[in-house]
Amino acid sequence: MQQNLSFLDVIKQYIEAGNIVLPVLNSAAMRVQQELVKKEPDMRVLESLICKDQSLSSQVLQMANSAFYHGLVEIMTIRSAIVRLGIQEVGRITLLAATKNQFQSKNKELNILMHKLWQHSVGCALGVQWLSKRCKLDEFKSHAFFAGLFHDVGKLFVLMVADQ
Predict the structure, then answer these.
(1) What is the DSSP string of 34-66?
(2) Half-sphere exposure of 85 toward its Cβ, with a 13 Å CA cutoff?
(3) Distance CA 7, CA 25 (A)
(4) How many Cβ atoms sit within 10 Å of the Cβ of residue 14?
(5) pLDDT in tens, the chain (164 residues)
(6) Residue 93's domain spans which residues?
(7) Quick one: 24 and 88 in the same domain?
(8) 3-state DSSP call for residue 2?
(9) Residue 88 sits in the same domain as residue 28
(10) Are 115 and 107 in contact (CB under 8 A)?
(11) Do 90 and 109 fall within a single domain?
């Protein structure tokens, strides 16, 4: 690319050339989300999907045993974690775990911006989820959380272009 282009021109070139692809969820997290939007999500299916992904399993167990959720007994299995946390909360944890790594850069300054964007996105996801519950739209809680988390995906794209 030419050095005398404006940043906006560089972004336009990336879009037109298809040089950058927005991050997607890994297959396990995507399948967990697909199960969650069903009218009656199956706990056994969720358990199986999460168990197949070591990173997601680790994150779910870590959260189930965190001070925020910790009960009297340490959780050792994904099934027990789902029982303790609930299906929807496990879904949110898997979504957050799968997306957090996408908000990182090796460039120190960009990494700071990506971290702030990540915090903002999580805050929006939780806020929109709360709002959907407050408005008695419980059937849309998962969709609202997802939408809140990704509402600024364009900003992530711009930061990814800057990172390259």
Answers:
(1) HHHTSSS--HHHHHHHHHT-HHHHHHHHHHHTS
(2) 30
(3) 28
(4) 17
(5) 456 888 888 888 888 887 766 767 788 888 998 898 888 999 999 999 999 989 889 999 999 998 888 778 899 999 999 999 999 889 888 888 888 888 888 899 999 999 999 999 999 999 998 999 899 988 788 788 889 988 988 898 889 888 88
(6) 18-98
(7) yes
(8) coil
(9) yes
(10) no
(11) no
In a domain, 9, yes or no: no
In sequence order, what are the residues at sequence separation of 6 or more whose Cβ sits closer than 8 angstroms to the Cβ of residue 70?
A: none
Note the pTM of the prediction, 2 decimals: 0.73
Amino acid at position 160, single letter: M
Angle at 98 between CA 93 and CA 101, to 5 degrees: 120
> Is 7 domain-assigned?
no
Q: Which residues contact 47 (CB under 8 A, 6 or more apart)?
A: 78, 79, 82
The answer to whether residue 36 is domain-embedded is yes
Contacts of residue 122, Cβ cutoff 8 Å, sequence gap at least 6: 96, 149
